[in-house]
Amino acid sequence: MKLYRYYLSTACILIVLLSLTLSACGDSASPVSASEPTTTGDTTTGVPVKVTITPAETASDDTITPTPLPKVAVVASGGFVINSSTIDASNSLIPQQYLDNARNLKILFNHQSVGYNVLEGLDALAQSNPDRYSLTTADVEQANWYLENNGVGGFTRGENENPASKVVGFKELFDNEGYADRVQVAMMKFCFVDNTSAASKIWENYRDGMNYLETKYPKVKFVWWTMPLITDGNQIRDQYNKLVRDYVKANNKILFDIADIESHEPSGKAVTNNNYPALFNNYSSDGGHLNEQGSQRVAQAWWWLTARLAGWNGITK
């Protein structure tokens, strides 16, 4: 019996020692939360001892790559033209489903002041009819903006009165700054002050730059633009715009013909000055930049463009 008690006592001591060891090392069967304090007993005094376990240091947000938003497919495969006849002036012609798809495209837009007028028109439409025209627009500084956002990213690469610099700046966004893998649609426009040399020289530089980008980055849909107008008709702008239109038609490109939109009244009547197409007076307050009416009219055409890119066939009921 004494021997039995001796073994029993020894076994109890071993169990106690084992329990103490598990308490010190942590019992894998009952893990402790990394964010909550836990309490264990002091085996010598019986006084509770609070042990706080702090979570591991997390990585800085700067090292985390945002999860890309899903892309809406760019469905348009052939060429088409957006002009004064493709404007949803009643805000009812474009089916809602294509507007919803269009607002989720990732678009790069290189521009200057008239481009800001266009963006102001888009914002005004969104303010007046958010269910139909809500859209994210922003001046963008980093390609990763497109990972967390859909919509229109604005850029102002190049200098006014130096159209060649705008083509160079547009190309650099893709060649050197990482936007080719981020955007689905890209476009650049000249300003009305870029008629600084012969129309053929401006055109050849623009044509070569756009063809270079289309060839090198086939996954991006590039949209060609005419040059905006002022209220005084001008030969260089008119010649340049004719070169753009003829080439786009012959080569099945996509064209946003802002000059045609600006040079037609809402009724469809053509506006000329000095026998050349000219900006309709009611679309501008200073003879060149677009006012509220002008900017919203161009913005309505923009939605027609992007709805077509998102799969709409352009046929209205």
Automatic annotation (TrEMBL):
Q: Which GO terms describe its molecular function?
A: hydrolase activity
Coiled-coil spans are: none
Cleaved signal peptide residues: 1-24
InterPro entries from the entry? SGNH_hydro_sf
Which keywords does this Swiss-Prot/TrEMBL entry list? Hydrolase, Signal
Q: Which domain of life is it from?
A: Bacteria
Task: Please report the name of this protein according to its UniProt entry.
Answer: SGNH/GDSL hydrolase family protein
Starting at the broadest rank, the lineage of the source organism is: Bacteria, Bacillati, Chloroflexota, Chloroflexia, Candidatus Chloroheliales
